[in-house]
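Question:
When you can, review this sequence-structure pair and walk me through the tokens.
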Amino acid sequence: MRLKDKVALVTGGASGIARATAELFAREGAKVAVADYSADGGNETVKSIKAGGGEAIFIKVDVSDSAQVARMVDAALQAYGRIDVLFNGAGIHRFGTVLETDEQTWNRVISINLTGTYLCCRAVLPHMIRQGGGSIINTSSTVGVHDAAANIAAYCSSKGGVTLLTKAMAIDHAKQGVRVNALVPGATDTPMIRNTFAPDALKALADSHPVGRLGRPEELAQAVLFLASDDASFVTGSAMFVDGGQTAKI
């Protein structure tokens, strides 16, 4: 029960890593506000949490819209009175070089992955500072920390921004008791990645990891739990690789 009596806000909680994290947070004692653009998926996550004896609510949000983000935070505070943990799990993926990426696609990827992270942090930080502390975990990517990859210019740019935004906030708010870290997943078996890659490309991606497979959302959630909990009380500004050896190989 590492999050007993804590309140966690999880964006992107309708599926993938964020859903697994929301469910794990609840099992570890947190009250969870599950936020996502997908009402069907978000409510399924809440249903799963409640079936396991946990407490959760669903809040519909487009994290690229500052007004919706403000309403999301207000709804979480109205329900539970505080926010101790923010996990920014919302994200999208698009293929394309700079020449192949139109302005609308570029703006959408940046607005969800990077601006959405900024807006959620900006909305939550004053409450965490006022209550004496908190933990924020952002979602970066291996192609946003130590390297890039072909044909995903917007995605690489957005995740690189998330990595340095995380470090900047960690420095700015450490003395206010707010820890800010980034999860750096390798390729993980989520609906997003299965909808993005053809089966043969997905197999090649899995085989490229030294462990020879994709990550599981539940494995990534365990790392987020560590960063959210008091076990990581001396960890801030960190980019935690959970990537099946991908970084070591590179």
Notes: The chain has one domain: 7-249. The radius of gyration is 17 Å.
